Each structure stands twice: as structure tokens, then as C-alpha cells.
Amino acid sequence: MARLAAGGMAVVAAFGLTACGVIGRPGSDETASAPGRAVAEGFKIGLLLPGTEATRYEKFDRPYITESVAELCPRCQVVYGSAGRDHDRQRRQFDSMLGDGVKVIILDAVDAKAIAPSVSRAVEQGVKVIAYDRLAGGPIDAYTSFDNVQIGKMQGQALLDALKAEGDPRRGPIVMINGSPADPNAGDFKKGVHSVLDGNVVIGGEYDIPGWSSDLAASDAAGAFATLGPERVIGVYAANDGMAGGAARAMRITGIAKGTPLTGQDAELAAIQRVLLGTQTMTIYKPIRPEARNAAQMAVDLGSGRTVTGGADGEGTVANGTSSSIPAQIIQPIVVTKDNIEDTVVKDGLWKVEEICTADLRAACKSAGLT
């Protein structure tokens, strides 16, 4: 599958999908309508991000969303809260925003199920809620994220291909390090990866890691390696790059053979560097800017009274157990290996060559064509 080409098309499509309505500007006919007046006057939009070991939220998501809102609604105010991976803290932030008069909340939930009562209170008060990056519980109004089952399939296929390149993929056990059980995305990743790996590999140990903790991932991986025998382990599935970092430490300490396949996700800087050094096989690049743009457009549309639709044809929906037809804008992810770093994360400006190619990576960068 030509993933890079498909991913590029998905990014273009995602930008196209964001045009849910035409934003009125002062002096235009649109400002005479209620939505146009709302945009011209501005309103408050809440932004609740989970806070995590991943660097993406402060470096990319928050500024991209804030910039997009400013372009679409110059007088709108973004009220921000980061939960530090603490559900109770996020719940308090959510309630505070309701008291602060926000019209819309963009929510990336720490605990998707536990936040549902807060979402219900918001709806009772007439506040719209957009689930961002992971599907939250409760009567949310819209959702934008990536094709998470497909991410799992991509990770599983990359791991399976790497195992086959060295021989029989069932010649030894693999270890699986899954994401947080409180995160519905983790369940989707797991579903996707199992659809590829089941029956094709021997799963020697599988762990769900609360909070996506890198330290817990390292501890569980090290325990699995010791039990199975480091000389027997032929591959490691890690659901994201933070946990891949923990797994990589455990692999090094316990004596797993260098070059043993290891997956990841999020295209974090450290993961890109591990891919170049050969200590991580791949990562998944999820273009954040179109996702952020989707969320901003949805927020401005919902806050001004416009209708939000999902998918390229306006018919894309998801269900979360409370609502069965939530408008959804879904973006396709991209597999990143040593061979396409320049054409993906560097080309899109996620990371600069000088950020990636530190002194100890110069030879690896030169070998990969990064100059």
C-alpha cells in the first residue's frame, strides 16, 4: 500500500473537510445573520488537553488550534486548561469553563468514560462539546481524530513485515505494550494490531499500561523479557513512542538483540532519532495541523449556531454509546520509517533536520539522506 501518497491525500482532504460553513466578516452580508453576528462579536471557546509525556500538546495542538480559531473568529477567546494526566483536575477545569461562560469546549479527555457526566452538564447548559483526538463519552456534538483502527493495522503490518524479513514470524515470542485502558483510542489500536498479528505471531506477553506511562512500559517489558528469555524475544509492539522509549530502555538493559523490531506512534523527536539509529522500526505520523483546523472550524461553527457535518460527503458519523450519529472528521495516518522521514515529518515542518540530526546522529542522518 502506498501509505505516504494516501496519507498526503488524506491531509488535503482533511483541510477541505473543515469548510463546514462560510464565516461572516464585518461588512459582509453574512454578518447580518445570527451566525455571522456571533462570529463578528466573538465568544469563548474552551480547550481542554490531557497533558502527557508526549510533547505534541503544548508544541503543536494548542498553538495550532489557537491560531486556527483566531483566523476563523478573530474576536473569539480560547480558554485553556491542561490536566496533567489527572482526570479529577480535568473535570474541575471543565466545570470551571462552564462557569466562565464558554459556548463550546474542545475536549481531549484523560478518561473518556469518566468525563461523560461533565459532558451531560455542558449540554444541559447549552454548551457544545467537541471530542478531540479521542472519542469521549456523553452527548458530544462532534468529533475529529485519526483512523485509530487503521493505525493499529499499520503498526501490526510494519512489525509483521520486519519479523518476516528475518525468517519465520513465529520462530519466537513477541511482547505487546498497549495503551491506557481508560483511553478508547488504545482499544482501537489494539483491535487493529490484533487483526494483523493474531495467528501470524506468538504473543508471549501483553500489557495494558495505565496513563501510557513510559516507566510502567519499561517495567512490564523488562519483566516479560526476563520471563520469556531475552535471547528468544523477536519483536516488541509498543502502542506509542513514549512507551516505545521505555521498551527500548528495557530491551537495552536486558540484552535484547540490537535491531529487534519495535513499533511506535506519534512521530516524537526521540522516536524519529531511534528510527534513524535502528533501535525503533517505525512510528506513525498523525498530521496535527488538519486535526486542529477541524476542531477550530467545528468550534466556531457550533458556537455561532451553524450545523456541523462529518466526512467528505457530510455523512460521516461515529457512535460513543450515548450518541449514535456524532458528526466526525477522520484523518488518515502515515507510517514513517528511515526511508521517508524527509518526505513526511521534515517536509511538513513537524521537525527540522537540525533538531533531528544532533552530533551523535550525523552519520545516521547522512545515511538516510538528511542534510
UniProtKB/TrEMBL annotation:
Domain of life, per lineage: Bacteria
Upper lineage: Bacteria, Bacillati, Actinomycetota, Actinomycetes, Streptosporangiales
Domain called Periplasmic binding protein: residue spans: 45-306
Locations listed in the record: Cell envelope
Statement: the UniProt record of this protein carries the keyword Metal-binding: no
Main location: other
Swiss-Prot/TrEMBL keywords: Signal
Gene3D superfamilies for the chain: 3.40.50.2300
Organism: Streptosporangium brasiliense
Protein name: D-xylose transport system substrate-binding protein
